[in-house]
Amino acid sequence: MAQFYHGSLAGLMVQTGKIESKKVIDCLYTCKEGLDLFDSENLDKSMKVHLNPTQSLLILEGNDIEKFDKSIQHVSYLNSRQFPTPGIRQLKITTSVKCFNEETCITIPDVEGYIMVLQPDEPKISLSGIDHFARAASEFESDEGVPLFPELKIISTVTREVEPEGEDEDEPTESMISEEIMHNLDMCEVSVLGDELNTEQESFDVDQSQLRQRGMEMSNSSTGMIITGVDTMANYEEMLHLIRYRNWNSESLFERKFKLVCSELNGRYTSNEFSVEVNVIHTANRVEHPNHVLVQPEFIRPVHHASVDLSGHNLANPHPSTVVPSAATVVIVICVSFLVFMIILGVFRIRAAHQRTVRDQENGKENEMDWDDSALTITVNPMETYEDQHSSEEEEEEEEEESEEGDEEDDITSAESESSEEEGEQEDQQNANRQQQLEWDDSTLTY
């Protein structure tokens, strides 16, 4: 093999005891992009076809011009890549003519052209799974470690335009559909977010035998891990499920964040950034609690004290000491009591304010019902006193006349007249008092 091999070697595969199928061999030797002769089986036997291994050069030889024209019309350009590189492919046709005497008779100029390869439908690689979980510190310190991507899913989709089935020219609309496709990946990178890995106590682990079976390679560093190799998305999923994170000194560790990115065609198509956050659960140690009141009851074991004769020892309290409430319990009780007191005080203040408001409303209503006599004035006519004096004099004269007539009557009638006179005198006194009350105060008058 060393004697007959010439050139650069890109890869070598030796399979003992088995011969691959023609399809596999053709795939190994045939480039995914090049020239080919379509329908070569029906080609005329007088035509000869030569094709170089890279399929970049195709030579046709023939004697009949018509058959030569038909054969050259079957020359085609093939590109079997799932995602071909867009761009221009230059073509050049060189023709030479030979006469019967095998000498060149005429010269035909070369023809140049090109093929435009359009942009393919780009795939969208999506990574999904559990992005946040917590594990006990003992699992991180174990030999197996903690799997970072236990339920990771890798899906690739393409979006294509689909023309409507109807032939309505008035509404030339196009709909977009998304289809799931399967293709290969060539790299997945796991990066550490935040501080770099401390190689003395942190590491990534993966099954090396599984990697070798799939023809993959792994490289580790303080910033993360990279898995390379062209393989299917399903195989990459299986390998990513096997990645484990270990930390054999997790006392000071509370959380770690990682990022996963996969790509194809040397980074031409990349996936989304899938971030994972891992929390460390630290269990409480019973020795670390000096106050046994803070320890849960299920962790307290009953201790039976043996009866010991302590006579002769001066002990303040020979009985087992009772548990004293902690300061935190006392503070909690005080805070709760103060809170209850403030609530009760607030209720009483609200109730008193409500009663005061009701009382003010009732007083306002009573004040509205009272008669407002502040604007009233009393005016006394001074002429009324003069008329009252004359009327009183006339009444006195009439009473005197009646009294004189009464003297002439019998003793029985005299008693009645006396009583009437007394009543008349009382009325005169009352009238005189009224007149004095209603007298005109002329002390403030000016003449």
Describe the protein in words.
Strands 10, 14, 16, 17, 19, 20 and 21 form a seven-stranded mixed β-sheet that branches. The protein has a three-stranded antiparallel β-sheet with strand order 9-12-13, with helices on one face. It is α+β, with helices and mostly antiparallel strands and 447 residues long. Helix 7 (383-407) runs antiparallel to helix 8. The chain contains eight helices and 21 strands. Helices cover 29% and strands 27% of the residues. Residues 286-324 have low confidence and may be disordered.
What is this structure, in a nutshell?
With 447 residues, the chain is α+β, with helices and mostly antiparallel strands. The protein is 29% helix and 27% strand.
How would you describe this structure in keywords?
447 residues; alpha+beta; 7-stranded mixed sheet
Layout: helices, strands, pairs:
Elements lengths: L21 H8 L3 E5 L10 E4 L6 E4 L3 H8 L2 E5 L7 E7 L2 E3 L5 E4 L3 E7 L6 E5 L3 E5 H5 L4 E2 L5 E10 L12 E7 L2 E10 L8 E4 L2 H6 L3 E5 L2 E9 H9 L2 E4 L7 E10 L4 E2 L3 E8 L45 H43 L13 H25 L3 H27 L10
Parallel strand pairs: 10-21
Antiparallel strand pairs: 1-4, 2-3, 5-8, 6-7, 9-12, 11-18, 12-13, 14-17, 14-19, 15-18, 16-17, 19-20, 19-21
